[in-house]
């Protein structure tokens, strides 16, 4: 185990509770808050570091899931119910992208923004498949991809097409690699022996900033499965699982494990120095102090 990833004496702390299935966290520096989705309750909540309170940000939100900050600081989020990636600024929500070649997206799940401003998101079928996480629907383009969206041109391209249920995603610090989790162990859409149900984080080479090639399994995560995860500035992957946050080196070795008493969906770094890890685990929000931060936050805060 690598002690230096956690701050000396760091202990897991439960800071909020009351959600049904918490997902999609993002740290909002100006509000000093973690905003996240309570998917089955169809609402967005916010935990304030200042007050220590959990408040409802909005209700009847179209079953949002994962979110991130765009380069301009606005919130990009995935919507199961509206089958789109959307932007929220001061409570006003607009569509970023919702279809590919005339077919509606399935139910975008998680999203990241590359340093060139392109928006990469996963599009599994959970929101049209699982009751209570969206509205029943069909896979209009007949599969489940990871897409790359170019806001300047409106161009949308599939970049990862070989996963059963692509879910969490993140780049390596230099963006030469794209990591994508496959969470199909939970609910394979249509069980397919050619694509066995998975619980692995896959890695792809990013070519010319626009293609993901040479997909291979980096690590199988168990117990449970990897849903959301983050990559720190050292290149380590901080992944959700059934019973713990599991930290893997870029080579895929388990180098840290933080036990959490509930099933984990996702996590993010935040706090004043960006080195607090916030963990969304079913009904509750937990946090623990670390010595690192998200590679994206690290880069955007002026470090390289
Ligand atoms: Mg997810």
From the helix content, strand content and strand pairing, which structural class follows?
A: mainly beta
Domain module count = 1
- The tally of helices reads 2
Could you tell me which ligands this complex binds, including any ions or cofactors? magnesium ion
The CATH architecture category equals: 6 Propeller
Report the count of strand segments.
26
Largest sheet: 4 strands, antiparallel
List unreliable stretches of 5+ residues.
none
What is the percent of helical residues?
Answer: under 10%
Strand order of the largest sheet: 1-26-25-24
| Tertiary shape | globular
Radius of gyration: 17 Å
The CATH superfamily name is: TolB, C-terminal domain
In the CATH hierarchy, the third-tier topology is known as Neuraminidase
Briefly, what CATH class? Mainly Beta
Order of helices and strands: EEEEEEEEEEEEEHEEEEEEEEEEEEEH
Mean pLDDT: 95
Summarize the structure in words.
The protein has 304 residues and is mainly beta. It is globular and about 50 Å long. The protein has helices at 126-129, 295-300, and strands at 13-17, 22-28, 33-38, 43-48, 54-59, 64-69, 75-79, 84-89, 92-97, 99-100, 103-104, 111-113, 119-122, 146-150, 155-160, 166-171, 177-182, 200-207, 211-220, 229-231, 237-239, 244-248, 254-259, 266-270, 276-281, 284-289. It has one domain: 6 Propeller (Neuraminidase). The two termini are 26 Å apart. A four-stranded antiparallel sheet has the order 1-26-25-24, with no helix packed on it. Strands 2-3-4-5 form a four-stranded antiparallel sheet, with no helix packed on it. A four-stranded antiparallel sheet has the order 6-7-8-9, with no helix packed on it. It contains two helices and 26 strands. The structure holds magnesium ion. Residues 23, 65-66, 109-110, 167-168, 227-228, 266 line the site of magnesium ion.
